[in-house]
Design brief:
With about 375 residues, the protein is mainly α. The protein is about 70% helix and about 0% strand. The termini are far apart.
């Protein structure tokens, strides 16, 4: 009787988890500034919602529902969390070389298929109690591999945690990692039949609800500055800058236009703060509010505009342009340039050479921030704010 009551409580909690995931998905799409970058976030919370919803809506005694629930919880949730963790830590979509991780959820079904093909106990059906048990055993592989991969990239997370401006992102990443560790801590005893089904379901639901609560608290908390935590999302409160801060924004704009500080690859936020004789916190507040972007994004915007000017108006090699614009490697230049323009530097140069009249008519070359010139049409810091 007690276990039946516990399981009923689990079903109610699972439905609460589904509702929370639906709310997060709605917020993701409402606040998304880049739908493409928001896809990993949406995919993860959709899978997490299914992880809550399948046990709540189905009879756990039915093999096909049980198998689907196990496959989502043990295969897809850790796999998708790997992508979103990397994306939050890097601040950009993971490289294509990480896509092989998507084969991990297939490990369990392949093992089940091989088992069923070799025995007659399931009567030719892919889903029977024995195959679901096997799926649960092999289902711990994706979570274990993901944790090993994250451990191999621990240096990245250490660097993110050591940067004050990225501290919020670090805590979101840490929350995702702890969630995966706790889930694996449930999956292994459950596969070994140390946990009863109702005990494992209750523990997983509690951990899942706690995780969702922590993520929503960290991500949807609105600070006095724009906060980019979940990829593709910008949560921002409008800030009214003081006259002194507006003047500081104009100084930053002039330093970028005239002195071209962005051309120094190692130029940091601390260097700019010392140049302006202000604290890094004040500098971040002004940049985030006046320019509606982070310091690194501000640098990269100017670097890409400088590179576009050189690609269009010079015969310099692409590698030389990358370093002259302020990038520390050709790979980072190619990645950032394509992310911001949708073209590779070479493709941009070819397109610019093929349509000089159209670009001249648009007036863009005369207004590039990287050129160090202005036609006076760009609004001041006060007008921007």
């Amino acid at each position: 009787m007690f276990m039946e009551q516990v399981f009923n409580v689990v079903q109610v909690l699972d439905l609460i988890g589904v509702l929370q995931c639906v709310i997060i998905l709605a917020l993701v799409f409402l606040k998304a500034t880049d739908i493409r970058k928001a896809i990993p976030t949406a995919a993860f919370f959709a899978a997490l919602g299914l992880g809550f919803g399948l046990p709540a809506a189905a009879d756990p005694q039915l093999a096909h529902w049980d198998a689907a629930s196990v496959w989502i919880a043990q295969g897809w949730i850790p796999t998708l969390s790997y992508f979103i963790i990397l994306q939050i830590a890097h601040g950009e979509l993971p490289e294509r070389r990480h896509l092989w991780v998507l084969v991990l959820p297939l490990f369990g079904p392949v093992a089940v298929f091989a088992f069923v093909a070799g025995v007659d106990s399931c009567g030719g059906s892919l889903l029977c109690p024995e195959s679901v048990t096997l799926l649960r055993v092999f289902g711990v592989v994706p979570g274990a591999v993901v944790l090993l991969l994250l451990w191999s990239n621990r240096g990245l997370f250490t660097r993110v945690g050591g940067q004050r401006e990225n501290r919020d992102r670090y805590w979101v990443v840490l929350t995702f990692i702890v969630f995966n560790i706790l889930n694996l801590g449930i999956d292994i005893p459950r596969a070994a039949e140390v946990f009863e089904p109702t005990q494992a379901a209750f523990a997983r639901t509690i951990f899942g609800l706690t995780f969702v609560y922590l993520v929503t608290t960290l991500v949807f908390r609105i600070d006095p500055k724009p906060v980019v935590l979940l990829p593709g999302m910008l949560i921002r409160r409008s800030i009214e800058l003081t006259p002194e801060e507006l003047a500081l924004a104009d100084k930053i704009r002039n330093l970028m236009r005239l002195d071209k500080l962005y051309q120094e690859p190692s130029f940091s936020r601390g260097d700019l703060a010392r140049e302006l004789n202000v604290s890094e916190n004040v500098l971040s507040r002004v940049i985030n509010s006046a320019f509606t972007k982070s310091f690194r994004k501000l640098l990269n915007d100017h670097r890409v505009e400088e590179a576009k000017l050189l690609l269009r108006d010079s015969d310099m090699q692409v590698t030389q342009i990358a370093f002259d614009a302020g990038f520390n490697s050709l790979a980072s230049f190619n990645r950032v340039f394509k992310e911001m323009t949708g073209q590779t530097p070479t493709a941009f140069r070819v397109a610019a050479a093929a349509a000089p009249d159209r670009q001249a008519a648009s007036g863009e070359p005369d207004r590039q921030t990287a050129s160090g010139e202005s036609d006076g049409s760009e609004p001041s810091a006060a007008e921007r704010s």
